[in-house]
Automatic annotation (TrEMBL):
<dbReference type="InterPro" id="IPR013785">
    <property type="entry name" value="Aldolase_TIM"/>
</dbReference>
<feature type="domain" description="Glycosyl hydrolase family 36 N-terminal">
    <location>
        <begin position="31"/>
        <end position="299"/>
    </location>
</feature>
<keyword id="KW-0326">Glycosidase</keyword>
<dbReference type="Pfam" id="PF16874">
    <property type="entry name" value="Glyco_hydro_36C"/>
</dbReference>
<dbReference type="InterPro" id="IPR031705">
    <property type="entry name" value="Glyco_hydro_36_C"/>
</dbReference>
<dbReference type="InterPro" id="IPR017853">
    <property type="entry name" value="GH"/>
</dbReference>
<protein>
    <recommendedName>
        <fullName>alpha-galactosidase</fullName>
        <ecNumber>3.2.1.22</ecNumber>
    </recommendedName>
</protein>
<dbReference type="Pfam" id="PF02065">
    <property type="entry name" value="Melibiase"/>
</dbReference>
<dbReference type="GO" id="GO:0004557">
    <property type="term" value="F:alpha-galactosidase activity"/>
</dbReference>
<dbReference type="InterPro" id="IPR000111">
    <property type="entry name" value="Glyco_hydro_27/36_CS"/>
</dbReference>
<feature type="domain" description="Glycosyl hydrolase family 36 C-terminal">
    <location>
        <begin position="667"/>
        <end position="795"/>
    </location>
</feature>
<dbReference type="InterPro" id="IPR002252">
    <property type="entry name" value="Glyco_hydro_36"/>
</dbReference>
<dbReference type="GO" id="GO:0016052">
    <property type="term" value="P:carbohydrate catabolic process"/>
</dbReference>
<dbReference type="InterPro" id="IPR031704">
    <property type="entry name" value="Glyco_hydro_36_N"/>
</dbReference>
<dbReference type="InterPro" id="IPR038417">
    <property type="entry name" value="Alpga-gal_N_sf"/>
</dbReference>
<dbReference type="InterPro" id="IPR050985">
    <property type="entry name" value="Alpha-glycosidase_related"/>
</dbReference>
<dbReference type="Pfam" id="PF16875">
    <property type="entry name" value="Glyco_hydro_36N"/>
</dbReference>
Length: 800
């Protein structure tokens, strides 16, 4: 609900009311928009402006050594005011929201209130339809989602700034974006135009951000800002694995279940910029949008520039509540298309089984092994197109290699379909290899500086997606590939960062537009292809999580979270993604051990259980696995299918112990929408000798409902006990001997059984004291074998 309180026709108050939050601002006496409040919902009397007075900071004199706005307002210094929009000049020396260089070379601009309008979401879509950017949306037939459009004018410079505030009340989310229009007679240059500004008087100086690198995505870090500025930004041409655009601002005492925090994200897939600045007066300014580094945009008379949409959400009940608000928003208002709510299939990817060494015979054999254990989708990864035997060639030449696929994609997809599975494949459409037919024919389609040596990344270069002709080539070539067989899934990869950024298509004066125009070109391509092929399940990928953002999720319903499939690493990666993204949008695979990224050996059950808290897939050579491992995988897939709706679309909760970076344990719980079914994970990193007791505390259950709590019935291989078996065996069993091998096939040790019934409040508040773990002092069927990197998965079902 949008409430307008009118003190006068020229100075209204605006209150954006969601289910549990209020965002307030008003028009100052100078005409500027002052931010007043963002927090728990408050009552606003629309008929009584004086009821809003407590929110306004009273000013008598400007702070010393500051510039006042003008002679008529000597008490106002823009340096000490919480603004909705800041610019260079007029006394505000903090980071600006907007930076415009005018035709005379000056950079001062000054935007004051002109008018406002409350519009529907459909009206906002119509207004922004030529922006080339993805936006939040709603499937609701009614126009219940409201948008406040505020128009500011720089009267001196003839510039207009439109601010869009969109309310998703049920999710407690407010989005912001902006449009700048040049009404002057001269071309102006944008050096910065961000999406959201949030000036705060409360101390939200505890920053949670997510840094990383390839195979080390989403490392959660917390920093307390005492003074100065913190910047979270990417300059890779993508949202990047170095710094995801999602951030949280919190109070010092905020934790998983308590305290105030504000989540901030950006619906954008390119260079982004988030900054939190604490000024000399203790106020905080948060900014989010396109990274201004090397950015510029020529704005001709009557032209406009649109910013990506920023996402804001406030929680008074800790990080957990914030995450669930954002999960709901992304599922309902970002992800779209036929796969929005459709259960995602369990896939088998060929990469770690074959790498580039693929052919139709080998792939069909691998697929048969997959079909035998219950795989639903078989994916042919890199190496299938003409001349592609390693990563040094062929990108751009999207034709099947007749030596590897003599019948083409049509023949292979038909054979996979005959096995009872759907077929999918890998592509990397944004790239070009120097050693390719496409490069020989169109070297000017590659993004590079003519006459200059070029930096390399994975032996490939970027196609210049600023060029409409290149965009059309990608659309046409991918349309041909996707139509060449019965293709139900596409993994869309992007394996190098931007460097030496230059578009041969653009003139010299527009080179500052290159990175953003690339992203707009990509969005055009993705929009066209997802419209042409609505039934294909597209999965985004960029060397894993190098482009994991809401922009990609606006077209592709899921993204490959990381090339690192190590179960231990994945607990941290997936736990961190969960702060801002729901489990249904990131994929996780069970791979072989030793792991291909870490050489770590983890139990097969742990690999499955961790990957289940995401969109499950497998990426191992099933043909080489033992019969016992294949039987275990068959049981895993059957179990996952039974609980898939809860894993993928349930409400997700993190255990409170997950917050402690030194914690040896981690727990997750997913609860069905009606609260009557739940599945939980309990994981331990390293075993602790002579410590047998653990407690799992589920979250999100219905307190007054009785649940049947139980675990899996697991048997252990004799080999898991090493030569400890000789303490009970009547004959000596040597490790690695033929006798041990034979016995391990027929003798299995029973695992512990967890089976009880209790009310939800008991399970959540008291927790479940699990069966004792092996502690070196004995073993029986009630002992939980829990060595390094072990986990358990538990199920809770309501009973009458």
């Amino acid at each position: 609900m949008i409430q307008i309180v009118k003190d006068s026709d020229t100075r209204p108050w605006f209150f954006l009311q969601t289910a549990h939050t209020t965002y307030g601002m008003w028009v100052m006496e100078t005409g500027h928009l002052e931010h007043l409040y963002y927090g728990e919902r408050i009552t606003v009397d629309s008929q009584n402006p004086s009821s809003c007075a407590p929110l306004v900071i009273q000013r008598a004199f400007a702070p010393g050594n500051t510039c006042t706005y003008d002679r008529e307002h000597p008490q106002i210094s823009m340096e000490d005011i919480c603004l909705e929009v800041s610019t260079l000049g007029k006394g505000d020396i903090r980071e600006p929201f907007l930076e415009v260089r005018l035709d005379d070379g000056s950079v001062t601009s000054d935007f004051t209130f002109d008018s406002y309008e409350v519009i529907t979401l459909k009206e906002r879509e119509q207004c922004l339809q030529d922006s080339g950017l993805p936006h939040s949306y709603s499937e609701a037939e009614t126009d219940s989602v409201e948008c406040l459009q505020i128009i500011l004018q720089d009267v001196t410079n003839h510039l207009e700034l439109q601010l869009f505030y969109t309310l998703f009340e049920e999710c407690d989310v407010i989005t912001r974006s902006a449009r700048l229009i040049n009404h002057s007679d001269a071309t102006v240059t944008l050096n910065r135009c961000l999406s959201a500004q949030l000036d705060l008087t409360e101390d939200y100086s505890m920053i949670t951000h997510f840094s990383g690198a390839w195979a080390r995505e989403m490392h959660r870090e917390q920093i307390s800002l005492h003074s100065g500025k913190f910047v979270n930004a990417s300059y890779t041409g993508t949202s990047s694995n170095r710094s995801n655009p999602f951030m949280i601002l919190g109070h010092k005492n905020t934790c998983e279940t308590f305290g105030s925090c504000i989540g901030c994200n950006l619906i954008y897939s390119g260079n982004h910029y988030e900054a939190l600045e604490k000024d000399s007066y203790g106020k905080l300014r948060f900014l989010s949008g396109i990274n201004p580094q090397s950015f510029s945009w020529e704005l001709t008379p009557e032209a406009h520039f649109d910013t990506p949409e920023a996402v804001l959400s406030y929680s008074s009940k800790g990080y957990g509540r914030l995450s669930r608000q954002l999960h709901s928003f992304i599922r309902e208002h970002i992800v779209r298309g036929v796969w929005k709510r459709r259960p995602r299939p369990v896939l088998l990817n060929s990469w770690e089984a074959c790498y580039f060494k693929i052919d139709e015979r080998k792939l069909v054999q691998l697929a048969k092994a997959g079909a035998d254990v219950g795989i639903e989708l078989f994916v042919m990864d890199d190496g299938w197109f003409l001349g592609r035997n390693d990563d040094t060639s062929s990108l751009g030449d999207w034709e099947p290699d007749p030596k590897k696929l003599p019948g083409g994609i049509a023949s292979l997809s038909k054979k996979i379909k005959a096995l009872g599975m759907d077929f999918g494949l890998w592509v990397e459409p944004e790239m070009i290899s120097e050693n390719s037919r496409l490069y020989q024919e169109h070297p000017d389609w590659a993004m590079m500086i003519p006459g200059h040596p070029h930096s390399e990344g994975r032996n490939q270069r970027l196609l210049d997606l600023c060029n409409p002709e290149v965009q059309q080539y990608v659309i046409d070539s991918m349309t041909k590939v996707f139509s060449s067989g019965d293709i139900r899934y596409v993994k869309w990869d992007m394996n190098r960062n931007f460097s030496d950024i230059y578009s041969p298509y653009l003139p010299a004066t527009k080179q500052g537009e290159t990175a953003h125009r690339y992203v707009l070109g990509l969005y055009h391509i993705m929009d066209e292809l997802t419209t042409r092929f609505p039934e294909i399940l597209f999965e985004g990928c960029s060397s894993g999580g190098n482009r994991f953002d809401l922009g990609i999720l606006s077209y592709f319903p899921q993204i490959w979270a990381s090339d690192n499939t190590d179960a231990l690493c994945r607990t941290g990666i997936q736990n961190s993604y969960s702060y801002g993204y729901p489990l249904s949008v990131f994929t996780a695979h069970v791979s072989s051990c030793p792991n291909h990224q870490t050489l770590r050996i983890t139990p097969l059950e742990t690999r499955f259980q961790v990957a289940s808290f995401g969109v499950l897939g497998y990426e191992c050579n099933l043909k080489d696995l033992s019969g016992s491992d294949l039987n275990a995988i068959r049981e895993q897939i059957t179990l996952y299918k039974k609980w898939r709706d809860v894993f993928q679309f349930g409400t997700f909760y993190r255990g409170t112990e997950n917050e402690d970076s030194d914690s040896e344990t981690l727990s997750w719980t997913c609860v069905s929408p009606d609260g009557r079914r739940a599945v939980g994970l309990f994981f331990r990193c390293l075993a602790v000798p002579n410590q047998s007791h653990d407690c799992y505390r589920p979250v999100g259950l219905l307190p007054d409902v009785k649940y049947h709590f139980y675990g899996r019935n697991i048997k252990y291989n004799l080999k898991d006990f090493g030569d400890l078996v000789n303490t009970v065996s009547p004959v000596h069993i040597k490790q690695g001997s033929a006798l041990q091998e034979i016995l391990s096939r027929f003798v299995n040790m029973d695992g512990e059984k967890e089976d009880l019934t209790a009310y939800g409040d008991t399970l959540m508040r008291a927790g479940i004291a699990l069966k004792p773990a092996f502690a070196g002092t004995g073993y029986n069927s009630d002992t939980r074998l829990f060595p390094d990197f072990s986990s358990r998965i538990y199920f809770m079902e309501a009973v009458e």
